């Protein structure tokens, strides 16, 4: 990247600074790209049909508790009551990459209660057309250091 391109990128990032996390506000705002998910609450939850996840190691349990606390603190997740017959979002595991942990949830049971979007993913041609004039394309994962640019 040339110095000029670096300056342009810095200016672009500054112009859109609301989309990036700040120290006291760890989630950025992407206005206009909100997603509404509709849950089907007409039918009852089924009885628990799978075995509970294997208990995590002490190291993974500690990492899991840290991840959950971070997400609770910033309001990304919240405690919910369930009917006692099913743990909708289990199992949760911790994946390790270069000594960094990442929480991974299995939401397949929850997904059976969502009303499917008729067009969940944009057609690739539409996406390619929209980004064809882009100068920079990035993939940034919120809340963690996994940033590729």
UniProtKB/TrEMBL annotation:
| Name of the protein in its database record | Uncharacterized protein
Question: Which InterPro entries does the annotation name?
Answer: DNA/RNA_pol_sf, Rev_trsase/Diguanyl_cyclase, RNA-dir_DNA_polymerase
């Amino acid at each position: 990247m040339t110095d000029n391109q670096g300056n342009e990128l810095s200016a672009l990032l500054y112009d859109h600074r609301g989309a990036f996390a700040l120290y006291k506000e760890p989630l950025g705002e992407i206005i206009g790209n909100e997603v509404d998910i509709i849950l089907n609450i007409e039918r009852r939850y089924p009885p628990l049909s799978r075995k509970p996840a294997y208990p995590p190691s002490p190291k993974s349990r500690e990492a899991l508790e840290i991840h959950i606390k971070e997400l609770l603190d910033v309001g990304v997740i919240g405690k919910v009551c369930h009917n006692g017959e099913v743990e909708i979002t289990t199992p949760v595991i911790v994946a390790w990459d270069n000594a960094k942990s990442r929480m991974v949830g299995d939401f397949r049971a929850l997904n059976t209660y969502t009303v499917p979007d008729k067009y969940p993913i944009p057609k690739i041609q539409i996406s390619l057309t929209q980004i064809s004039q882009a100068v920079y394309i990035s993939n940034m994962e919120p809340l963690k250091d996994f940033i590729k640019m």
